[in-house]
Amino acid sequence: MADPQDSAPLNHLSPTLPEGFVRVREVIPDIRVDLRYATPNNFIGKPVDGYHAHHLILTRDAAAALKDVQDALRPYELTLKVFDGYRPQRAVDHFVRWSTEPDDHIMKPSYYPKVDKADLFDAGYIARRSGHSRGSAIDLTIASKNFPHAELDMGTPFDFFDPASRIDSPIITPQQKANRLLLRTLMIQHGFKPYQEEWWHFSLMDEPFPNRYFDFAISEEHHSPESKE
Q: Helix, strand, coil shares of the chain as percentages rounded to 5?
């Protein structure tokens, strides 16, 4: 899918995001966003509940740390490409409902070829209470700034639910391993921690809402609250 731009005007009539959250392109204008759950290009094959706009939202702290990663990549003509950030709890609930629909396997060959959809939770690929709903978790990769569809080869696609997606998978090539290491190293250096099962998933180490799960929808009208700094 093409990379939609964050162009909705900000005005005082628009609903404001919860305090502490921002639209990431207001912090990192050149970041690339492919918000998969706002499209049919994901493991359930349809837009997910709560994703009503193609706007990447994170806590302000997570966005600031992510900006440091983007700043480190920029001199090398590389950019972060983000697949998901803040995820409403209603989206997680959508995943749970989908997992109980036995006849819906349309996306199985592309996303979970070796595991039954009902086992995705126990296998650690999907959670009933996701860290994404706290606003400081992010799914992403590295891509070329000059070639819009050129991502670094990480060995598997995003959301490929398989042991090959583990950070330390032994079946990937040396170049794929080096690409994963580059992403992981930069993210750790700037305050994120990786998730062993998924090379694309990181969480802010010092997240501001460690015990809260939010459920506001991602809306076209949302804008970031003014910073009090």
A: 30, 15, 55
Alpha-carbon gap, residue 222 to 201, rounded angstroms: 25
Q: CA 138 to CA 200: how far, in whole Å?
A: 8
Could you tell me where the DSSP H helices lie in 8-152?
60-73, 89-99, 108-111
pTM of the model: 0.89
Fold of 21-204: Muramoyl-pentapeptide Carboxypeptidase; domain 2 (3.30.1380)
Active-site residue flag, 198: yes
Catalytic residue among 19, 26, 77, 198: 198
Contact assessment for residue 55 and residue 218, using Cβ atoms and an 8 Å cutoff: yes
pLDDT in tens, 142-192: 999 988 779 999 999 999 999 999 999 999 999 999 999 999 999 999 999
Task: Give the contacts of 59 (CB within 8 A, at least 6 positions apart).
Answer: 20, 21, 22, 86, 134, 135, 136, 204, 207, 208, 209
Q: Domain residues of the chain, as ranges?
A: 21-204
C-alpha 205: how far from its chain's center?
16
Would you tell me how many other CB atoms lie within 10 Å of the CB of residue 63? 26
